[in-house]
Write a structure and sequence with these properties.
By secondary structure, this protein is mostly helical. It is built from 5 helices and 4 strands. Strand 1 (92-94) and strand 2 form a beta hairpin. The chain is rod-shaped and about 95 Å long.
Length: 156
């Protein structure tokens, strides 16, 4: 249950508190006879077995309800960890709209992006990479031989 948020625990505590309020009404009804005092109903005798049975019933319903709520919240939080990605264009679903990867990185993680080229794409696109002194690289695509692979060893 460690992946639940503070608001989830607040919901569970409020839910349990409402069940406790129902039990308090049942106890007040048994001990001070609420209908007799406030509604003019005939006085009822004191019956401890009645309020014990009612209390036990409310507790069982409360335990089942709180347990189901915790299970649902846990599954909800697990599903939030999934990243919904479009199968065709690879956009990502964020806050009710589809955005590209760069926008997702900015919105969710406050990351900025830059561009580079991986080893596979260097070979695939017949690319030549030249490193300059200031740390910049220059990428040149050899379009004269579109299908002949050029082997390139990446820098370590």
């Amino acid at each position: 249950m460690k992946n639940l948020k503070k608001s989830d625990w607040t919901l569970v505590v409020v839910e349990a508190g409402l069940f406790m309020m129902v039990m308090m009404v049942l106890w007040l009804d048994e001990f001070i006879d609420l209908p007799y005092r406030f509604l003019g109903a005939p006085k009822t005798p004191y019956r401890p077995q009645e309020y014990i049975l009612e209390t036990a019933s409310v507790l069982v319903v409360e335990i089942v309800t709180v347990t189901i709520t915790l299970i649902i919240l846990r599954k909800l939080r697990q599903n939030e960890k999934f990243l919904r990605v479009c199968a065709w264009c690879r956009k990502i679903w964020v806050d009710g709209e589809w955005v590209n990867l760069e926008e997702y990185a900015v919105r969710q993680h406050s990351l900025r992006s830059t561009h580079g080229i991986c080893d596979v794409c260097v070979v695939k696109h017949n690319t030549k990479v030249e490193h300059k002194k200031d740390g910049q690289i220059e990428i040149m695509i050899d379009k004269s031989k579109p299908h002949s692979p050029r082997y390139w060893k990446p820098l370590q």
